[in-house]
Structures are given as structure tokens and as C-alpha cells.
Amino acid sequence: MQVLAQAVRSLKHAVLQNSHLRDATEMKKVFFRRACITSSSMSQQKGLENTTVAEVLMTKDEEKVGSWLWCSTDDTVYDAVKQMAQFNIGSLVVLKPGDPQLIAGIITERDYLKKVIVQDRSSKYTKVREIMTEQKKLITVSSDTNVLHAMQLMTENHIRHVPVIDGRIVGMISMVDVVRAVVEQQNGEVKRLNEFIKGDYY
Which DSSP string do the residues of 136-171 spell out, in sequence order? Predict the structure, then answer.
């Protein structure tokens, strides 16, 4: 709706700027060109709604899903944070010992900072289960969830990382991944608007 409103305001501005046009034919051309941009904006918004989490995961420059994506409740926080640093990720899915598909929760950088560093605890003597966000509070998405809904979930729940679960762990999506997807969808629209602004009305 915001995109459409912006396009309508832009159309009105163009009409006012070109009130000196000599005849109705030229005015129609202005309306036609602005209408094309409005239609394009609406198409971009529709495309964003149809972009799924699975598509975002495919664009991430990372390995296949594997043990680097999770840790155990019995692991130390030190080992978990070391694993995050090694693979440049901000969270790990926490699994119960002995079952690679039984999710116990999630541990994030925020958990480490708030529950270990700030409280002056030792990461080498603190178990992941002591500071993780438990499974009952865990927010997840599936691979067919659209990115707008994923963004809404993260925003409403004040979280930055969401596990992708399709009966099993298939990946992890972050707010950075979602924002990147939104920006890429809007780049084409911005380019067309810039070309219009720099060009002549015709």
C-alpha cells in the first residue's frame, strides 16, 4: 500500500509540473508513463509476497545443513559460541542429546551476552541448557513461509534468528537475510523510478 500511495503522489506531482503541456495528447502520455510505474510497483510488491524462505536460503553463501548449525544441551556455552564464531553465524539450534531431530531450543549471541557476560559467568562452566531459549518459546518457520511473514514474526517477537523446520531442521534465517531479500526485490523498482526522474516526460 505504501508503494502504491507513493506512486499516486508522484503521479499528482508530475501532472502539476507539466500543466504547461500544450495539448491533451501530451498529458495522456504523462499519465500513461506514471501508470506504468504504478503498475510496476504493485507487481514488485506481489513478487515480494511470493518470495519464500526456501528461496532466501538458496541465496545464502553457506554449506548444506549440517552439525555446524546446531549444538547439544550438554555442550558448554564456550563451545557453542566458538562454533558460532567459526561459521560466522549468530545462533544455533539446540538439540537434546541422542536425538538429532528433537529440538530443545535455540541459543543466540544475545543469550550469551545477557546471561553470561553481563552476569559475569564462566562460559566454560556454563551449559547451553542453562541459558538457551527453550523449545516452548521457540519461533520457527517452514521453507514455504513467505519472507514478509517471516519478517513480521521476527519484528513482533523481537528476535533476529528463526530456525527453518520442515519436520526436520533445513536451515536458519536471520533478519539480515530477510532484509536483503526485500532490498533485492525493490532494487528494480528504484532503478525504474530513478530512470524516470532523470528522463524527460513524453
Answer: GG---B-TTSBHHHHHHHHHHHT-SEEEEESSSEEE
